[in-house]
Amino acid sequence: MNDTTNDTPEQEPEDDSLSPTSDEFQVSQPGNINPEVLQNISVNLSIEVGRTNIKIKDLMRLTQGSVVELDRIAGEPLDLLVNDTVVAQGEVVLVNDRYGIRLTRVVPSTDRLKSL
User: Fold this and answer.
1) For the chain, which has fewer Cβ within 10 Å, the N-terminal or C-terminal residue?
2) pTM, two decimal places
3) Which residues pair with 108 in a beta bridge?
């Protein structure tokens, strides 16, 4: 029995356009990073309304309809966090039936870099 078919699965060719080249990792000057490499890095963006600390016994007593008091005053700006670092503050807005945030204060980029 002569079977000429290849039973090994074919590997799809890699798309080199998505993979960074070694040239993209070259540093133009000490301490500088190529901005093209940074543009494709994902970050976690979140909006924080407020925080509080409670005891576990109080946490266990929470039920539907319970109210948890936060450390913010009503109307106070919300924090915009990127990877748990505050980068801006703003107010809640409604955009086409979705929540958004209108930025009212942005942390200067030099201060943002210090917290990384």
Assistant:
1) N
2) 0.60
3) none
